[in-house]
Amino acid sequence: MRILVAEDEQVIAQQIKNVLTSEGRVVDIARDGTEAQFLGETEPYDMIILDIGLPHRDGITVLKHWRGNGVQTPVMLLTARDGWSERVDGLDAGADDYLVKPFHMPELSARVRAMIRRQAGRASPVFSKDNVMFDTRSNQVLVSGVPASLTSQEIAVLSYLFHNAGRLVSRMELSEHIYQYDGDRDSNTIAVFVNRLRKKLGTELIETVRGRGYVIKAAA
User: How many domains does the chain have?
Assistant: First the structure.
């Protein structure tokens, strides 16, 4: 899953990126409101973490612009402890959640997982199909109860397909959601990752619709 972190404090931004990347997320960082606004409306993010106090253009202004232009990506606001009025304004502007600074990284991680689950219309953090179980809290994958060893990119592909279970996903869409902005988005490598997943998890989990993409047809 691909996340935009719009945060001008370099240390905080890097800490957030490190934590989310360690969980198999793809993270882009915007350092100011102008860059955040551009990336948020031109790149296909699964969610956005948006600091209210960005330079050049504040977070609430950016959020209002996105919502006014039809961008419905889930947004979590980062706010100051005493900024209760800004939190109200942000929620009224279309934010889905907020987190007050200073915060603990495990809480941010849990909120990110919850927002992505809500976007997928799920309450449970665990996906399963046939003999494959995928726990989004730990990125652990079990096949008939036995742990499977997956690379970060294999986890990213599997996670996106599970979160979109029942919907056909093209190679191009997958590549847009597992590579960073300006990264090497070669959609042909998606086939390599899918083939590796099939070898590790079984050939029945991910179905190919020739010339169109891939689908996990049902998930519990």
Answer: 2
